[in-house]
Amino acid sequence: MAYWLLKTEPQDYSYDDLERDRSAIWDGVSNALALKHLRTMNIGDLAFIYHTGKERQIIGVAEIITQPYPDPALEDVKRVVVGVQPVGRLSQPITLAQIKQDDNFVQFDLVRLPRLSVVPVSLTYWQRLVQLGDGIRS
Fold first, then answer.
1. Which helix (H) or strand (E) element contains residue 36?
2. For a tag site, which of 82, 113, 117, 119 has the least CB within 10 Å?
């Protein structure tokens, strides 16, 4: 199992929307490195959902429920999507400021590559972030 962080503009598609819809296609990724990460996802991987913009915080966790496949809305086989479903919210959202203040996250791609929309998360980072978020509520 691998762990990820998926960024979204909450006014476009929020964790509330994912909970309401029960599943969604994670699309709109165009950056080459982010697409490379998306292509390596597998069913059962877990991903933090991070609200960008004014919020800048990890809200909840989603599970990858499909293998990557070409975006059906585009005529470009390089642009892939995955299906996701909500797992649960963090008991306490984790702000980007909190992450940046923690010296353990200096090498975290969320900090190092702030514009990247699909970020791999090591098991160590995953466990620390779940701890900072006071666990996952299902």
1. helix 32-39
2. 113
